Amino acid sequence: MNGPTILGKGDELLQVDFLGANINGQQINATSFKVDGVSGFLKDLSLLPLAAFQISGGTFYGTDVSVRFLPSIALGDLGKFSFFGIGFIHNPGVWLKDPLPLDVGVGYFTQTMSVGDIFSSTANQFGLYASKTFGAVVSVTPYAGLTYETSTTTLKYAYEYDTQAGPQKANFEFDLKGNNGVGFTIGAALNLVIVDLTIDYKLAATKTVSAGLVFGF
After folding, report:
1. What is the 8-class DSSP label of residue 2?
2. What sign does the CA torsion over 119, 9, 206, 181 have?
3. Which of 82, 143, 191, 204 could crosslink 131 through cysteines, CB 3.0-4.6 Å?
4. What structural domains does the chain harbor?
């Protein structure tokens, strides 16, 4: 069985190669067929932009907690798209008598993206971060992070077809492990009183550029 994922081409269909089997005493010959309606949806995108809301709270004993989310979006027959993530960063410097020359933090973040019942992807990130703020009312904060990441994508769907033994239903489900591993992030934040502008670049197996607009009160 081979074919596109949700990111695949719209004109590429799922190809099923059946090697033959004995079902309820009936020998079913080997066959190959394409599954209509099971094709790529996002046209083989090489770039997938994603925006989300984020709410952060802290600091509580050196710990900040963040929640990311998007309202559910209906995608026709595919079902609803949803996105949710939660994580924290802890600054161990709060337990030290003398301040460190840099703000450091250790953190964990997890997020899940799903489309109906056919697609879900979960990513986890453990990280060590460092930053330094220059300025007062208006300031600039360069930062860097070293992370270890894992991800799993699950695809599943059911297909009904006719055979010599009568109608059959095949349930397909498989997991894909992400090629994540270690990543390095470098970026900066411009702090303008109650508004922060951030931008960073992550060097990893999957490279990403992130930008943010943060309101703080």
Report:
1. B
2. positive
3. 143
4. 1-48 (no CATH), 53-215 (2.40.160)
Mean pLDDT lowest for which of 6-20, 107-121, 188-202?
A: 6-20
pLDDT tens digits, one per residue of 7-61: 566 666 667 777 777 766 777 777 776 666 555 655 555 666 677 888 989 889 9
∠ Cα 86 214 122 (to 5°): 25
Q: In angstroms, what CA-CA distances link 71 with 32, 51, 82?
A: 41, 11, 7
- Cα dist. 173→6, 119, 154, 215 in Å? 14, 10, 7, 42
Q: What is the mean pLDDT of residues 87-104?
A: 92
Q: Which residues contact 100 (CB under 8 A, 6 or more apart)?
A: 93
Which pLDDT score, from 0 to 100, does residue 91 have? 93
**CB-CB contact of 20 with 28 (8 Å):** yes
For 74-97, letters b (16+ CB in 10 Å) and e give eeeeeeebbbebebbbbbeeeeee
Tens digits of residue pLDDT in 150-185: 999 998 877 777 777 778 777 778 888 887 889 999
Identify the CA nearest to 2 among candidates 39, 28, 54, 29: 39
DSSP state letters, 116-151: TTTEEEEEEEEEEEEE--EESSEEEEEEEEEEEEEE
